[in-house]
């Protein structure tokens, strides 16, 4: 019977997600939380303990002198990253999906576990981003609960269940993003070959999917201003294209006169009877029909 060992006591997202990965793969076996070298030596794998990184011997620690290596972007590997590096592709069924998960989830956890501050400046000095590492750490028993060792073990198992659920959903989401790439590329080719008055400035998706990553890869010159797509309710939406990846500022906002308007008021401004709304921040608007949303796109381009 396989055994996986990790350290006892205070739990962290690092080993929590590492254990979750092994559990989802079905190779976790019996989980042992201890710092006893003899008990750890009997384990098939050791996570975040042991002072050694060697997948061949089942060792995935990063506390040894010199650490366990860094990524090309400078983010060091913690135990979750080491486990993911070895097993991520197997769990995801795709190297591309595993890489996305590493970028979105694993690297942030590794960085914090290794003491790297990812956000150095805050707009509000008294407000901090609550990370997934914070959420997992919240499972630790609090001092006033007078916790015993078994309380930490029980809470660790609860935290691992949360980590497993997050991993499963992130894998599904990453696979969806990979599939969305082809959908956006097809829409882009339709736009390029179209004689529509919208030209190359409005990308029309026949079904919603994540579009930003692929759009930025395709639209190198920054021509596309808006993206049109159906919503989950059956209505249609027009959304602005950000000026760059990861920023809220748009290449072009929706018209200022539309801001915060709804229903009849917006219908009068757009000459679209089924216009529904325009967000106050002018980054998204909606109408009940595709015909109307395309008309709104034309108006927005002229504004």
What's the structural blueprint in terms of helices and strands?
Blueprint lengths: L2 E4 L6 H13 L4 E4 L3 H5 L3 E3 L5 E2 L4 E2 L18 H14 L2 H19 L18 H6 L11 H44 L9 E3 L7 H7 L7 E5 L5 E5 L22 H8 L4 E4 L5 E4 L2 H13 L1
Helix pairs in contact: 1-3, 1-6, 3-4, 4-6, 6-7
Protein name: Metal-dependent hydrolase
GO cellular component, one term: cytoplasm
Family: Belongs to the MYG1 family.
Distance between the termini: 69 Å
How many runs of DSSP E, i.e. beta strands?
10
Category by helix and strand content: alpha/beta
Largest sheet: 5 strands, mixed
Strand order of the largest sheet: 2-1-3-5-4
Element order: H for helix, E for strand: EHEHEEEHHHHEHEEHEEH
> Mean pLDDT, nearest integer?
95
Low-confidence stretches: none
Helix content: 40-55%
Instruction: Report the principal-axis shape.
Output: elongated
β content, as a range? 5-15%
Number of self-contained structural domains: 2
Discrete helix count: 9
Nearest-angstrom radius of gyration?
25 Å
